[in-house]
Amino acid sequence: MSHSAQRRWYPIVFSIAALVLLPLSVLVLSWHSVDGEIWRHLWDTQMPRLLGNTLALLLGVGTGVTLLGVSLAWLTSLCEFPGRRWLDWALMLPFAIPAYVLAFVFVGLLDFSGPLQSLLREWFGSGLRLPRVRSTGGVILVLVLVFYPYVYLLARSAFLAQGKGLMEAARALGQSPWQAFWRVALPMARPAIGAGLALAMMETLADFGAVSVFNYDTFTTAIYKTWYGFYSLSSATQLASLLLLAVMLVVYGERRARGMPRPSSERPRGRALYRLHGFKAAAASAWCVLVFLCAFVIPVLQLLAWFWQRGRFDLDERYVALILHTLWLGGCAALLTVACAMLLAFARRLVPGRTMGTAVGLANLGYALPGSVLAVSIMLAFSYLDRELVIPLSTWLGGAGKPLLLGSLTALLLAYLVRFLAVAFGPLESSLARVRPSLPEAARSLGVGGSQLFQRIYLPLLLPGTLSAVLLVFVDVLKEMPATLLMRPFGWDTLAVRIFEMTSEGEWARAALPALTLVLVGLLPVIGLIRRSARQPG
């Protein structure tokens, strides 16, 4: 490719990177004017509690997902016990359940007036009370059950990749299975575990729906209340910048703590190393089955029961409108995001170098931005553009002089693009890396170039990765709550918004229909993940 042709990629990549950096710049500039009265009120009434709750969640969820994910990964990858083969993939199914869905199922099932406690009072007397589910422990339990698959999946892959030679060498040196795990397998898997832990903690910081169901105040709920309670978009943006700072500290700390990956020349194992018997085998099966029941089976059965009890009566024209809005937003966002990610992937391949690599890296920073952070920053930027540019121009042209960007679908689609660009970029970059440079070079030598080269050579080879990227972004957009809730235009409710409205009113049964729809759609990428994982030996 000529130097002039390479230079054409720079404006494209820099423009996409600028879109991602727009929210970051808005967050920094929001501090030029501080509403002292609102901040004094927040500090006197909420800030200490927000900090305490957020730190408690990070500590509890971080500890829980590590213990749960690593223990399950160790059992399913290295041990043989009854049910191991189907539990190996079944433990990935909780990926399909959004955190806010599992949250309202747990509250509806375990609350004082819920079916479980009501049944127990009938059996054992009216004085029986279980611990309050609307508590710090309840929130932590739900988030651990939702986010442990991040650690489980990565730790399982790391354990499988270690081969059997290292474990056998440790056993030959007199190490017990537990000592071999603690001294050999765990240190080597630490980078993968750390990456999964960082993802779980970022999701915890960004969560809005689950903590709202539990009425548990964190920075994400404070952003929403500041925006809609105090009508102060600037103060909400400043709170969002503090949340983003916490996310960045988590990412930085994880990268410093995990160190460099340790390559292994071992061939992946084809079977488990340790065959468990008796009590140990029963305990391993019981532990894995218990997690699977609590994280997937019981919530889905409860949603089905609520659907049959009340949710099926909501199958009307309004629900059809919710489906159409959700599908339209998901489809448009997926196509837009995958198109931009495709451009980034080709730019990185065709124009190698530090400058292009840095620009592409900046364009993929958006996944670290919580939806609530994106919402307030983009809305603040669009509010400024409406006030300073759109309204004066419309008035000058004889128009109504009304804001066009604020509260528009354009703002919402931009938030989705920034948030999920990295999700689409990963599968596309992997697919493009498998295309040997000799193929397009041979096509050019035969006179095939430009758009024909893309259509005849690249597109067929990139089709599986492209479909995976579209599906991943589509499902993530369907499940996304905070940005959609804060930025949707009037009348553009989605399934996630419907769930929020129903759970805010305690209508668990009426929230079951949209929740089941999201779970069923969310199973599609999880099934693909299970199929790819099944190709690994183990």
From TrEMBL:
The chain crosses the membrane at residues 12-34, 54-75, 87-110, 136-155, 192-216, 228-252, 281-307, 319-347, 359-385, 405-428, 457-478, 511-530. It is found in: Cell membrane. It is a multi-pass membrane protein. Residues 51-252, 323-531 form the ABC transmembrane type-1 domain. It comes from the Bacteria. Keywords: Cell membrane, Membrane, Transmembrane, Transmembrane helix, Transport. This is ABC transporter permease. Belongs to the binding-protein-dependent transport system permease family. Its main location: membrane.
